[in-house]
Every structure is written in structure tokens, then in C-alpha cells.
Amino acid sequence: MKAGHKCLFFQHVLLSVILLCHGKDVFFNDNKNLILPGSYKVAWMAGVQDFRTLSLLTIPGTHDTMARYGGPEGKCQAWTLNDQLRAGIRFLDLKVFSLFDTLYVMHGVMYQRSTFKEVLDTVKAFVSEFKTEAVLIRVQPEPLEKSTVNNKVRSLIGNDQHVWVTSGMPNMGQVRGKIVFLQESTFTLGIPLVETEGKSKVTNVKDKDNRIIKQLNQANEACGGDNAVMTYTSGTGFGTFGGMFLTPKRVAEKNHFPHRLDSSLTAKQAVSGRMSVSITKGEGVTVFTMTVDPKSSCPPLCQIIKSLCYSPVWCTVSQQLRAAQRMSQSVLGALHIMTGLLHIGLGVILLNGRSGSGWVMDDTLFPVWMGVLFTLFGVMCILSEKFPSLCLVSINVILNMTGVAFALTAIVLYSINMAGVSLWWMCRDDYQLNYDDQIPTMSTEKRGRIMESCIYARHLALMLLRSINGVLIVLSVLELCVAISSVVLGIKDLRSKDKGENKKTGDLEQYQPLLEEITTK
Description:
By secondary structure, the chain is α/β, with parallel strands linked by helices. It folds into 3 domains: 264 residues, Alpha-Beta Barrel (TIM Barrel); 38 residues, no CATH class; 191 residues, no CATH class. α14 packs antiparallel against α15 and α15 runs antiparallel to α17.
């Protein structure tokens, strides 16, 4: 779901959504007849690149999709389901009620003259005709019918390969021509769905507009690679004192926030010319087809490299990783940065101190560049916690693995440097003769005192230089422990994400024997 890099599910009451209303440029429609212009493209998802995950798209939908009956207080839609799909709606919201062996579509206590099977048949016919499209369905059972509705839906879909029921977030190429279910606490099939804090009760339409903006901000913060995020523009004043006359139709008519769906989808088609990559496999050959964007300022080779390297699944924030992480990586990152800066500072002291550094340190300047690397590892630790995508967490693990090697190398090099520290040139007669013409004329007693002071100063200098090397060795050991800890935590976070996805997939697999039993009867 991508529009301005926001991950949102727009759930519009179709009355407010908008298209072609009696020839006027307004954002409201209550005409039951759908009139599409000749230039309108029903299959707007054809403009979405195959590698885009659903969590990177903005998908328009309808709240209480089938609520076309029930009087002013209950009617939410003017168009039939088929017309909604042709108008561009790709998200359906269905409340179902189980009676005997049938699932009926309801709105409150009002039967909407359709069964759930009839809805599925209509959607299947649509995606069969427009194979580039995918339709997302949210099923809301009655509170006491969760288990019953789940089992009956499984029975209806059977082993249909054109229905997506697993919890993994698919890309567009995987779900073209398919129905995608969305799971919540009351429905266990499909990809996870989270909602923003929306209120359906409306007493003031302007307040509703402001609330929508707040919801969009919440959705932008909550979006990620593992969940679909839904927000509402619909509402009704029924059941409130101040808004008792605000029917769903009135709210939709007065609500000026939604933009024209036609313009939104046209804009989405307009950017479809960006570089895209598709793969076709045949016998003994795999063909990569790449479409270059002629409007891009980048040369074709750069566009190809970018398309091959960029993966939305890897580069989007994962809510499962965010939930698995704590503040550990930030703490470890701070320790990385501290050790790195101390390496640089103390290393500069050794490099500028006479005989404080051996030839290896002088030639390689390893305290400086190792300190820079340790600081970089710390920054990556913090980024991997603040923006926990698969890409950043994996890079953080790899960098810290190299950090382990660098820390071990630093321990060895500083140990060698400490052993080699020697101020042999201090307090020698030939050295003093070269730098002090007064030494030969001094008395033996005075010369002895100077030599004694010199030896004491040399002892202090050696102690200082060896202490600095010792501190750097301790810091390198600390860096080793921090790097190992960061690697272990990163791997645990990645494994916990995989286990979470496998657990959700397993929830469906445990019902496979029941599905097979039902389909054979």
C-alpha cells in the first residue's frame, strides 16, 4: 500500500468515495447506476509492479460493502458489489451470520439479500475476468460464532489455489487473480490486519475530518512489512444525540476529505512506467524482463541494479521484529560508539607519543580506523532497533560478525604494542651528550641526581604508555563481548520472526485434515 510512502488501507463508504456524479466534479455519489468514462481502466492494479508487497500499497475499500438495504440509518452503499469492483474498490468488509449450513451477509440485524458464497462467486468471476487484480476481504463473524464461521469459510474455499489464506505478506505478483483474506482476532485466515483508532460515531463532520488525519498519521507509524493497516473515513450519527440526523449518506456527502478515486488510480497508473522486473521460467531457461523508465534521470544500468538490489520485503520495517526487540541493541550500540571514540582518542595519544607506538601502529594507524569501524557498528545497532527491517537487522548481524574479528585483532595488536613499548633512549649518556652540553661540566653528584630523576620519569612514562595500551586491550575485550551479544540478539530476533510466521502458517495446517474430510464429502 503505497502513496507518499504511507502504508494505509483506506476504507471509504462508497457514497463518499466518489466517482462521476451527475456530470459534476464532486466527491459524492448516491446514484445506483455506475457510469464509467471511456478512458477509465478497470484493471488499475496492472500498473502495480509485481515485486511490490501489499503492505506497500494504498488500497481503496468500502465499509459494510454489502449494506445496500436497511433504510437511511443502515444503507451505506449505492452500487452493487460488481459495480464497486469495476469502480476500483479492492477491499471488502463483510459481516456474516451463520444459520444452519449457510453464511449470510448482514449489517447489524438487517439481512443484505446475499450469502457469503454469492459474494465469493462474484469476486471470483471478477478476478477471472481481470487477472491482474486482487481483492482483499475482511470477514467479521458475530462474537459468538467465531469458530463456526471460520470452519464454514474453510469449507467454502476448500483447496482453491486462487484464495490466499496464509499469514505471510505476499507481493502483487503472488496474488494477481486471487482473493486475499485478512485475519483479525475473530477470523484466522489470511494476512494480519491492524486498525487505527477510528470511531464510527459522528456528531460533527469537521471533527471527523480531523480524526481522519490523526488516523492516517497512526497508520503511517504502524505500517510495516508484516501487517496490513486499515483506517476509516466512514461514519454515522445514529445512536448519538448531537448527530442523530447524520446518516451514513449525510456523513459521506459532507465529508470533504476523500479525494477522487478516479484521480487516485489514474495517478497510480501514471507512475507505472518506473523500472520493473519480471521473471519467466521455461524448460532449461529463465528469462528476466526489465522495463526501463525513460523519464528517470538514472541511466538504464543504474535502474537495473537498483531494481535487482531493492526488495520491499527486506527494506520495510517489520512489526514482528519491532515486537521481538527491546532496548538491547540501542544499549549495545552506545557501547560500540563509546569504545570506538576511546580507541580513536587513546590511539592518537600513542601515535603522537615518542616511542608510544610500534612500527605496526605507525604504518597502519589501526587504532583510528578500528575506532571508526566500532563507531559505525554502534550506529548500525541503533538503526536496526529504530527501523527493524530484515535488511538492517541482517546487515547489523554481518557487521558485528566482522566486529568480532576486528576486536580479536585489536587485542593481539595492542598486546604486541604493549610488549614493545620501551623508552631505551632515555637516561643514556650518549643521548644526554647529544642534547645537553652542560652534562660533561656537571659534578658527579648533580649528574647522579639528574639520572635518578630521569629514570623515575622514564618509569612513569612507561607506566602511562603501558596503561593506555592496557585500557585499549580492555576496550577491545569489551568490544568483542558487545559484538558477540549484538550478533546473538540479532539472530534471535530473525529466528523469532521466522517462528512467528511458521506458527501462523501452522494454524492453518492443523486444520488441513478437516478440510480434506469436508471436501471429500
